[in-house]
Amino acid sequence: MSTAGQVIKCKAAVAWGPGQPLIIEEIEVAPPKKGEVRVKILATGVCHTDAYTLSGKDPEGEWWPIVFGHEGGGIVESVGEGVTSVQPGDHLDQLREED
């Protein structure tokens, strides 16, 4: 069953503030907008920038709540208008298209 164009629910590790533990909870993810891609993340790493933001020392601002894990790999679930470089079902590694 395709979920393209629909809000989906999934589980995510959410940080609600600096130094707070990550909490696994159900979140809603909107369909991709123009130029966006929605990816079903199968695995992710937590890197130093995630740890830095969670520490509360990141000068770029407050992003709470936040779901970390920009070093993820997964499968394209749906694409927004104008996206031509990937399509649903494509596998991505660290949010880049696989060869």
From TrEMBL:
PANTHER family: ALCOHOL DEHYDROGENASE (PTHR43880), ALCOHOL DEHYDROGENASE CLASS-3 (PTHR43880:SF12). Gene3D superfamilies: Medium-chain alcohol dehydrogenases, catalytic domain. One of its GO terms (biological process) is formaldehyde catabolic process. It comes from Rhizophagus irregularis. This is Alcohol dehydrogenase-like N-terminal domain-containing protein. The lineage of its organism: Eukaryota, Fungi, Fungi incertae sedis, Mucoromycota, Glomeromycotina. Residues 90-99 have a biased composition (Basic and acidic residues). GO terms for cellular component: cytosol. GO terms for molecular function: S-(hydroxymethyl)glutathione dehydrogenase [NAD(P)+] activity; zinc ion binding. Residues 80-99 are annotated as: Disordered. Residues 34-91 form the Alcohol dehydrogenase-like N-terminal domain. Keywords: Metal-binding, NAD, Oxidoreductase, Zinc. InterPro entries: ADH-like_N, ADH_Zn_CS, GroES-like_sf.
